[in-house]
Amino acid sequence: MGHLNCREKATILDRDGIRRALTRIAHEIIEKNQGVDRVVLIGIRRRGVPLALRLAEKIEQIEGAEVPVGFLDITLYRDDLTRLGPQPQLSRTEVPFPVTDQTVILVDDVLYTGRTVRAALDAIMDLGRPRAIQLAALIDRGHRELPIRADYVGKNVPTSSREIISVQLEDIDGQERVVILETG
Ligand SMILES: O=P(O)(O)OC[C@H]1O[C@H](OP(=O)(O)OP(=O)(O)O)[C@H](O)[C@@H]1O
Ligand SMILES: O=c1cc[nH]c(=O)[nH]1
């Protein structure tokens, strides 16, 4: 990733680590929901998308049931971009199934302040009335600014605010790892 003036500090997860974390989360999703009847996955672009697809694949392998996967691009909903004014259109959003009465599992790579998730909740509420919304994050790095927590976490990583978590996935980045970068 193109983070300027960043020093790589440590690898948090390698390829196997990411795979194992997703396998565990897939099992936890099935257990918490007593199966996946009326469960749908929605990945937040960009890296929540391949993560949601991988979870769906694992759930199908474990449970033998297909779980619908949708995608949400919430950039225009972020409450720190209000200078742009109201935007009538969500770009590249695809949720081709009803969310009403479904348990929606939001999937993202990093949970930080919680602002992206708050915006995603707004976007989902605009689509219908889910039975419940749960959150899966590959990395929870702390520093929440809103009362939001994840139901499923790949790895909790205590960070300072000068650090950046960089999730790199084969599908987008050509390699598979999670690293911690130090800025400044
Ligand atoms: O909890 P938050 O403070 O909202 O941070 C988490 C979000 O930040 C990242 O996206 P970012 O906007 O950096 O874009 P990217 O996915 O292109 O890196 C990450 O993918 C999460 O969606
Ligand atoms: O460290 C961070 C914070 C937000 N989003 C990321 O991808 N990394």
TrEMBL record:
Renumbered ranges of motif PRPP-binding: 104-116
Pfam annotation, one family: Pribosyltran
Keyword Glycoprotein belongs to the record: no
InterPro entries for the chain: PRTase-like (IPR029057), PRTase_dom (IPR000836), PyrR (IPR023050), PyrR_bifunctional (IPR050137)
Gene Ontology MF term list: RNA binding; uracil phosphoribosyltransferase activity
First-level EC class: transferase
GO BP field: DNA-templated transcription termination
EC number: 2.4.2.9
Signal peptide per UniProt: none
Domain Phosphoribosyltransferase stretches: 12-158
Subunit structure: Homodimer and homohexamer; in equilibrium.
Recorded family membership: Belongs to the purine/pyrimidine phosphoribosyltransferase family. PyrR subfamily.
Protein task: Also displays a weak uracil phosphoribosyltransferase activity which is not physiologically significant. Regulates transcriptional attenuation of the pyrimidine nucleotide (pyr) operon by binding in a uridine-dependent manner to specific sites on pyr mRNA. This disrupts an antiterminator hairpin in the RNA and favors formation of a downstream transcription terminator, leading to a reduced expression of downstream genes.
Name of the protein: Bifunctional protein PyrR
Species per Swiss-Prot/TrEMBL record: Desulforudis audaxviator (strain MP104C)
